[in-house]
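Weekly puzzle thread! Below is a chain. First person to post its structure in token form gets bragging rights.
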Amino acid sequence: MLVCIPAKTQFKRILVPTDFTDVSDRAVSYARNIARLYDAKIVLAHVNEPINPIAPPEIVWFDELTELKKDAELLESKSAELRGQGFRAETASLTGTLRDEILSAALQERSEIIVLGSHGRSGIMRILFGSEAEVVYRQAACPILVVGPHAPQPEDKPWHPRDIVCATNLDPDSAPAAAYAYLLAQEHQATFTLFHVIDSTHATVDEVQAAQFEKALAEHLPENEKPVFTARTLMIGYRLGSTITDFAKERHSDLIVLGAHPASAANTHMPRGIAPEVISEAHCPVMILHSY
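Winning reply:
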């Protein structure tokens, strides 16, 4: 189940991994807007690969140290820019694997949300190199706001989602994520749509499972809270992730919420599941919440 469903969202500590690319810069922009709303501290984190322990030629060693210094200076300049704009900002220059260091930093900083840029790798690039972003959002204990390659540059104002789509398979285990998304929509007075997509091998919705999901959803909402939302079910043969993103695009949604099960790093080299497909195609950020 979801670790925690707060009565009111409090994103006071935001962790933003950056590799200094345009996608990361867009993630920083979203983090900035969230920080405006919650008066939050932003921690910019950059992960460096460890220097090869096998003694390289002196010139190679020097070049690696020079690059590390340049990265540290660039990280500090971006943090200074945020402070110059009135934000509370710090840096974390880390060495190791992105997965281990970001997850460790999130725990150390007690981060309440991670805002993460993703390049949305697919095809042969995914098989060869995997998706480090996917490892993070499938393992982190806090919500992850993933800014994919097609998410727009946000306007420079406090974050207020206005149309939220929560995609679910009606598994009762996913009810906590749906409850979190619903309460987030209530907080922002946003339109909330519970979107259920099934493949064409199932002729109808499993009514028993649907009833169990609704019961589980009610258990994760405040007492006497009767959710009001639009529910829609669509049957389709394949590419369920594309169906979700197409629906959100038609609605001009500004947030998609998904539940995701933890997965190993090896699984991120396999063909994409629904969550990576949604992230790579969505025209808005995607919030990932854990289902256990």
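Puzzle host: Confirmed. Bonus trivia for everyone else. Residues 123-130, 264-271 have pLDDT under 50 and may be disordered.
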